[in-house]
Design goal:
Layout: E1 33-34, E2 40-41, E3 45-52, E4 58-65
Antiparallel strand pairs: 1-2, 3-4
Length: 66
């Protein structure tokens, strides 16, 4: 499995000094993958969510998928 994956990407254009409130929903399906037995499923565990303008300049939140 990759260390980081891009999910729910959307480009937002802002004018200088403009801000917008953005919301999105991630479901367990966003964390699912095909396992060795060819079933598509998400595994429980700890994850980190990164939101930002690039892969370095981000806000980070930890969560647990049950």
């Amino acid at each position: 499995r990759p260390i980081k994956e891009l999910k729910r990407f959307k480009k937002i254009l802002l004018q200088p000094n403009e801000s917008k409130k953005i919301s999105f929903t991630l479901t367990s399906n966003d964390f699912a993958f095909y396992s060795l037995d060819k079933s598509f499923k998400a595994e429980a565990g700890d994850f980190q969510l990164f939101v930002g303008r690039n892969s370095q300049d981000v806000l980070k939140e930890n969560f647990n998928l049950k």
